[in-house]
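Forwarding the complex inputs:
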Amino acid sequence: MEEIEKAAEEILATVKADKEKVMEDLKKFVEYGVPLEQAKEVVISKYGEVTKEKKLKDIEAGERNICTIGKIIAIDEREVEVRGERRKIYRGLLGDDTAVIPFTAWKDFGLSKGDVVRIENASSSEWGGEPRLSLSEWTTVEKVDYDIELVKRAPQRYNLIDLKPGLSNVEARGKILSIEEREVNIGGEARKVFSGVMADETGKVRFTAWKDFGLGEGEVIRIKNAYVRKWRGAPQLIFDENSTVEKIDEEIVMEERATPLHKVVEAGGGIDLILEGTILDVRDDSGIIFRCPQCNRKLRDGVCEEHGEVEGVADLRIRALLDDGTGAVEVIMNREISEKLLEKKMEEFMEVAKEAMDYSIVHEEVVEKLFATPVRVKGDSLPSEFIVTIFARDVEILRFDKEGEIEEIKMQLEGLQ
Amino acid sequence: MREPAWRVFAAEYNEANHVIEGRGEKKPRYVLTPLGAKVNRLFIAGVLTDVEEIGAEGIRRRARISDPTGIHVVYAEAFEPEVASILADMEVPSYIAVVGKVRIYEPEENVLYVSARAEKAKEVSEEVRDHWIIEACRGTLVRINAMRDALSMNEATPKQLRELGYPPAVAEGVSEALKVYKDIDVEQYEMMVRDALSFITTGKKEIRKDYAAEEEKLLDIIASMQGEDGAIWDEVMEEAVKQGMERSVVEEVMVILLEKGQIYEPQLGKIKMV
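Prediction (whole assembly, two chains):
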């Protein structure tokens, strides 16, 4: 009985209905031996048409049939491939007086920034440990004709290395390493944008300013109310007319410090990264490969996707999995880096392979040399779908200072006392 | 997301008796250790002490890899013939590195044995093994700190632990471990890290303690349980633990007895005195 009452209350938290009736329905199902969890779902769908609106802060990951009211704070459009089909999706931020959460719309609801909307039958999933609202085919979105208050949040201060796509109301500081002006066309209107790279003690990030803040190279600035998007496989800090930018009199000394891989994975990439980890896999297509002489694409069985059967040009490259125990990324090494790391020229590998009449022998040698080897990688991430992929600018084998490491761990242990 | 490969000492990993089912399409399974490592994939480096053929086809292999704290049991399954043949060709003892997924054996409710299923394996240098010990120490230390902080708070949510600067996976694992493990002995793990460090500084090979008393005790247990076809390994383990032996010690002593030829395995999972 108590269980039924508890279940009824849980149901009433999501749908509008009479408690007595809900309990009666539940009891009926349970008497017939329907498990309580199932009975709950049946009852929810029975009353589901009149859904109660939820505050955004109450939305958790993995919910369905969500009804809520919010204001579109930001929205942008991007093209993705879904089951081989190009589709436009819309991503942005939705806010009310309790929270701001990211959303994805899988079709065009005709939304624009500033709209206040009532959303019915949305669902939520987990993204970066936080809930994300998903608006699908079955979701209805209606604009309402009143404005709503937005939650006043203290801006969150971030180190640049901790910026990840989807963050909003960001406060950050950094030194402008480079900046350039260009013109873009938005809805038939030419606008000036300024983009470049900025850095703090923890790392570097690309930025775009949608307004002329009069910024120049070498200046140290503090930005408030910026947000972060993903661009070309790395986070990008964006500030616009809603943001404030002030020049500050501070010095920034950049440190050459390795970033833990879980941070790179969470951010979905990054630029000018220093990474340390162990090579735990060498992909099968590492070693000698053949490229198309016209477009440089990797050939498959002597055939280029674009130019058909061609006389391939040999190249040496390595695709390796780098793992530091907290995260894993893929690292692509070109010929120059591969030769340095393997201490052997491509020509020598070619000869060995020709003698053995088998190019896979080179792959075996790469595995032999690199599997379980700790390395330090410098590079930038590339756009990729499944795993963060780093294009290496330099890779070196990590010679670790055993005594030093032991001393450091001992000191930490003493610190526990 | 590709699951990272945790560097976890055998003593901590083998004590795990809780499994978490992950979300998402593939529903990955995680072994949760008492110190909050939430492991789906492992990276192990240590001394290969034993490789045996198991199963009728003789393709599958079971290997034992010793680290300074205990023994990792690693399986090479029939669908990974490359790994199985690498194990078969390696000399014992030698240094080995293995990347593997968690392997969970649950003979009955609330009884759980964890090991690893190898995806990759290769003979490595002593330096790689030492580096692994350092990494395992560092990782363990992060969890020790997180667990201490969590224990000092009333109710440590993953979010609170993240705010203290712990990586998300550690924050989640520690918070979950607090819920399912009682009386987590953090000091025991500090001792473990200390021992592991002194193991590489002295540069000595495996210091094997004198297990004479434990050997006798285990033989008595086996004798009392073996019947006609041998005693069931897991039941022997349970009984030994009940009598106050540590799981990692039982494992080690079993291997010693197997090596000495005092016991043998008439079939998989059973042991009999010679």
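The mean pLDDT of chain A is 89.
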